[in-house]
Each structure stands twice: as C-alpha cells, then as structure tokens.
Amino acid sequence: MQVLVVEDERRMAELLKQGLEEEGHSVVLAGNGRDGLAMAETHPFDAIVLDVMLPGIDGFSVARKLRAARNQTPILMLTARDTIGDMVEGLNLGADDYLVKPFSFEVLVARLRAVSRRGPIPQPVTLRVEDLTLNPATRDVTRGDRRISLTRTEYSLLELLMRRAGRVVPRESLIEAVWGFDSDVRNNTLDAFIRLVREKVEGAAGPKLIQTVRGVGYCLRKEEA
Ligand code: CA
After folding, report:
1. What's the predicted TM-score (pTM) here?
2. 4 CA from centroid of ligand 1 (Å)
3. Ligand 1 centre from 56 Cα, in Å?
C-alpha cells in the first residue's frame, strides 16, 4: 500500500515510516496539515494516517476538506487522550477509524489494514427533484445554477422532504425529525420555517416544489400544471 502519514512530531513520523516500510508499504511523510492536504489531493494514496493536532490546519480540517472534495481515501486518525472527545466529530467529518496515542504498532497496522480493505466509502447519493439538488455529504443545496444557503433547521427540513420526495410528510414527522420527539414546537413554527425554506428554494423562476397538503403536512414535488 501507498500510505500518506501526516504527523508533525518528527520522531513519531519516522517511527511510523520505518515500521510501515518494514511491513512492505511505501510511505510519504507530511509534517503539517497544509502539506498533507496538498499531497492527498494530488496523489492517490491507499490510506492516510492523519494526526489530529497539527500546526496550521488540524487533522479534522484536513479530513473535512478531503471529503468535501470527494476524496474518499481511507483515513485513520491519531489522537491524544485529551482530544478523544472530539473524535465523534472526526468520524462525522469522514475519518474511518481512530487510534489514541500511545498505541502499539501492531494495532496501528491492523487498523490500517482494516480501513483500507473497506476501500473507498461509497459516495452518498445526491438527492434531486427537478432542478433542485441536495448533497448530504457536503450539505450543498442548489437550484439550477443557484447555490442556496440554508440554516441548520431549514436544511434539515428540506433534506427530509427531499428524501421522501413525491410522498406527503406529515407535520408531526417533520417536527419530530427536526426538533426532537418531546419538543414543544408547534405547527405555526413549522409553517414559519417552511415559509423560509420556500422563499430560498422557490425563487422567482421554476415550478413550485414544496406543496402544502392541507390538514396533513408537506410534500416535495413539482406543482401539477
Ligand atoms: Ca501532532
């Protein structure tokens, strides 16, 4: 395997390089996040060992930027014990697995083998209704050529409607999915947010896509002519 190791601690980096080469892998070292990102973007590695704490761009940002650029190279993150709480975020951003320092080299080799065997993670499908698209991986929303900027709540509502496009989504389902099961959000709050999403999504041109189904909920589909 060709492995990119992004680690600023020189001794650690050298140990990883030596150990992985003894295992038969070829290793490229990067000493900071910026270099690591540039190398990962320009060369197809089989796996990336990525330290979290790096000068300049940290490991989380490197992982996020790679995934946003649709780079699906398996990533094994290295984290110190005091940043382990952040690893949930790391995994959400696209890391495939992580190891807490200090770790044994055998464990690293085994985990690296496991993440690379999984291979590139399939790209989440972009949701599309007419000329409206939503990419769950990057959270990019566009209508035609126009990029749409949504708040967190607006995005959640639209994603749910798009995942169930063509079907009526009951009000309770929308409220439950976006605000939680025991929230005291009321119907008029939902309506207010739907109005905001509509203003951004519909614009002046194109058919109306978010339909109100009276007494039931909302449905994303092209308006019947
Ligand atoms: Ca470090």
Report:
1. 0.54
2. 15
3. 11
pLDDT of 119 above 70: no
Q: Ligand 1: distance of its center to the CA of 137 in Å?
A: 27
Counted residue by residue, the chain has a size of 225
Tokens in use for 80? 């110190």
* Ligand 1 midpoint to CA 85 (Å): 16
> Greatest CA span in the chain, whole angstroms?
68
Count Cβ atoms below 10 Å from residue 204 Cβ, excluding itself.
Answer: 4
The secondary structure of 14-65 as a DSSP string is HHHHHHHHHTT-EEEEESSHHHHHHHHHHS--SEEEEESS-SSS-HHHHHHH
Residue that wins the pLDDT comparison between 66 and 82: 66
Comparing 17-31, 55-69, 138-152, 193-207, the range with the smallest average pLDDT is 193-207
Q: Ligand 1 centre and the CA of 53: distance in Å?
A: 4
Ligand 1 centroid to residue 69 C-alpha, Å = 24
Angle at 61 between CA 59 and CA 64, to 5 degrees: 110
Between helix 105-118 and helix 10-22 the angle, nearest 10°, is 70
| Tens-digit pLDDT profile for residues 180-200 | 766 777 778 899 999 999 999
